[in-house]
Each structure stands twice: as structure tokens, then as C-alpha cells.
Amino acid sequence: MEKEIITEDIKTILRDTFKELKDEVVIEVFTQKGVNDEFNDIATGLVKTVSQLTEKIKPHFYRIGDEAAKNRNVHRSPTVLIAPGKYTLRYTGAPVGEEGRSFIMALLMASTGKTFISDDSRQRLKRLKDKRHVKVFVSPTCPYCPQQALYALSAAIERGDLVSAEVIEIYENRDLAEQYAAMSVPKTFVGETLTASGLQPEEYFMESLIEGGPVEFVMPAGREELRDYDIVIVGGGPAGLTAAVYAERSGLKTIIFEKANVGGQIAITPIVENYPGFTSIAGKTLVDLMAKQAMEYTILLQGVGVSEIKKKNGGFEVSTGRGIYNARAILLATGAYSKRLNAPGEKRLMGRGVSYCGTCDGYLFKDGKSVLVVGGGNSALTDALYLESLGAHVTLVHRRDSFRAEERLQQSVFQRNIPVLWNSRVAEIVGNKVVEKVRIEEVTTGKISDLKTEGVFIAVGYEPNNELAGKLGLEIDGEGYIKVDEMMRTSMPLVYAAGDITGAVKQIVVAVSQGSIAALTAFEELSTPYWKARR
Prior knowledge:
The chain is globular. The chain is 30% helix and 24% strand. The chain is an alpha/beta fold. An 8-stranded mixed sheet has the order 2-1-3-4-6-5-7-8, with helices on one face. It is built from 16 helices and 25 strands. α4 runs parallel beside α6 and α5 runs parallel beside α8.
């Protein structure tokens, strides 16, 4: 039975969105009975539904093995092609969940011929001389994946003569996920060469596409378009988004640069239950609300990284992949990234069962696979509960004899009878091509035992994203976090910091509070610099 997966309110939004369609868009769906039947029905139902919302979308349905499939070189079920013959845009797997966003955007781009990448990226793509096939591995629950997929799809539309794009869902194509070590997503290949693990800034994606391999540095777009702002915010998490709202409302011209995913850690938090005003809300939903409000006031450039900040003429010069920006003040809200265990086998099996994002990668283990979650804080318990709710068999591994997480999270873990290995640490992660087992050491006795598992989700804390702070010469503490005073000032006048990068309690309300304080402090000090008043 085909499934209807679009609600009536979403249909209303899509009808309005599809008014922007220009040319007819052909969608071809290929399925094979007995292979991914559930997802065949979903893909078929999705395409039938969107085609009923506009006359511009023309669906066709075929079987794997028939002449059409042979002509299109389609062998996997389900496969969805968008505007075949005009562009080479392929979804290997049903484009649902988070990936539904890139699918709708792909329809718009294929119809209008207009993409959403920057003019700089279009200029970069003119340098491409050889054919490129881009594969982006995704999952329906990964909030980072649609943006990376959109880069690939956009490139295939901008340079349809040379670029083809394929978006591959890992659960429906587990053999490919294992073959390419793409069990953590997004993961991007140009041909058979790995170019990125995770979401890239747009300019890095384009350069790696052009070069056919990973790139470590991308030259800024150019200095001819110097742009002036009162405050440049680096980081689009809750601290940066809140700061932008307060800064603009104070009359400061503001811009946000976010090199990865808007929302930071919150975007991959399944459920938030401690943010005022919401008894329970998905982290991604909360982020979307914050971002929507911020964008009513300011410019938010996602996928644009800041490579350097220099003091210049009493202000600052900010180098990005989109060019050079001038700022009177800087706010660093760069957050933190997941800490590694540094256990033997961890690095080698990263993307082959080792993950740091339960929301992104947990879907692969939803049908009763055994997984371990390592850690005892809020993140670890949240991941354990989320994975258990998907249907995975979860065991927690914690080096202490009690959790550090909130009491409510602990109660939920105990109520669901999720097993816990207390006073234990991961001594080694073992496997040939993928994770097969974990060697566990009891810290009190030193006893070693092996535990079979197919996935290891590591949530043992965070490391600060302090590279820009280091380049500026800001004072940092022993753990690498930026030192700030009660007004979010750093050791350099007119440079502020807020959120996880300050080493404060890692809670959304704390980040929001610090962001607002930093913005208001910047407003006051741009008017009356405190360091001049004291002279």
C-alpha cells in the first residue's frame, strides 16, 4: 500500500511554493518488488502527491530491469531521477525526512534553472574542465545532509555539461554505505575520492569538486567588494542568533557567518524539554524558529566560514570564502565539537560504525541493531533514549558509578531498562571493514571483556572551536575556552564571545543569555568605549 507522507498543511505550503515553477519537470521513479518495498511505496507516494499539487510536475513510474531502467543505468530500488535528459540528478533511496527539503529545492532549481549558490561559486565552477560525479551519502534524520546535497545538486544544474549528482540514502543502501565507509553522514565523494566527512562551507565544496579531492584552504572570493558592518558574528547557534536579534534591534548593522549547520548542537538534539515556553520541542524545530526570527533582522550566511580576523584601522577585517568584510566589533559564538575517545580503532572505523551524532547516523541501526553509547552526561543519555526509540538495542558505557546527566534523563533511561556498564571504559574498537565488537575495561579491576556491537556512539564531552580565538591572540583557559567577563568581553576590546566557546554551562538558555548580553555590551561600547573612558 502506497503511503501518503505529506500532511495537508505542508501541501498548502507546497502549492504556494510550486507557483515559482517555470518549465515542466519530469520525475522518473524506479522500483523493484521485494527490495526496499516500504521505501518504494514512500517514494512512489511522495512523487504522486507532489505531482497532484501542480501541473508542472510530470511523474513516470518504471520497474528495475525494464528498458527505461537500462537506458538510465538504474539498478537500485527505489531510485528517483529529476529532469533526466536535461540534468543528471539522482536520489538513490526515497527522498524523505530531512532530505525532503533538498528534493523540493531540486524540483524548483530544475524547473527554473536557477540555483541558490553564490555568484562566487558560479565563477569557481567556470574553471571546471573535466566530468565529475558527486555522491552525497545521507540519512532521513540528518539535519546537516540537505545542505550538502543541495551543493551537489546545484553544481549539477549550473554545470550540467560536466557534473552529475547522486544523493544516496544509507539505510536503504547499506552495502554502499559499508563499501564507502559512509555509515556516518553526510559523506561526500567526487568519483571514488572522499572529499568531505560532514557538512562543508560552500566554497570548500566547490573547490573540492573542481580539484577532484579534498582541499585544506580556499582563497577568499576577492577584495573588491569590501563590506562594512557594525558587528560580525561568527557562529549561527543560539548565542549567535540571539545576539543578532539584539544587535539589530539596537541599531547595529549585523551579519552572521555559519560555516556548518545553523543551530549547532541543538539542531541534532532530538527533543528539548528544558527550554522555557516549550514543554517538549524537537531541537531542529527550536533552531528553525530562532533562525527565522533572526533572519527577519539580519543576514545569515550558512556554509560560509571565517578563515581569519585581523585588527585594522581601529576595527577588524574579516576574511571569508565570500570575500572580505569590515567590522567595528566581533562576536565569537563558534561553539564546540564532540570530543574523541582516542581509543584504538576509533579513527580507523569512523564512518564505519563509529559516530558522534545519534540523530544523524542512528537511523541505520533502527531495526534491532546493537549499539553502544559512551558517556554519562546529557548528550549521552539523550542519544541513548533516541536510539532506543528508533528500535536499536542500546547499552550505555560510563566510566563512573553514576551519571552526570539531568535527573529526568536518568529516570527515562532507568524506566526504559536501558543496560548500563558502570565503571567501564572503551579500551578498543574492533572490526575489519565495520565495527564488530568493543573491548571494555572495568576501571576498578582492570578486567577486559569483549562486547559484540554494530555501532558506537561517542558522547563524552566537547572541545572548543577556538581557532579564530587563537589567531586573534585572545586569552583562553586551560581547557581551550575563551575567557570572558560578566559582560562577555574578551581580552581584546570590541571582541566578545558567547555560548559554548566560553566554557559556560552547555545549556540553550545560557547561550541565549550570553548572546543577548554580548550584543548589548557591544552596542554600549561602540558608543562609549570603556577602555577610552578609563584613560
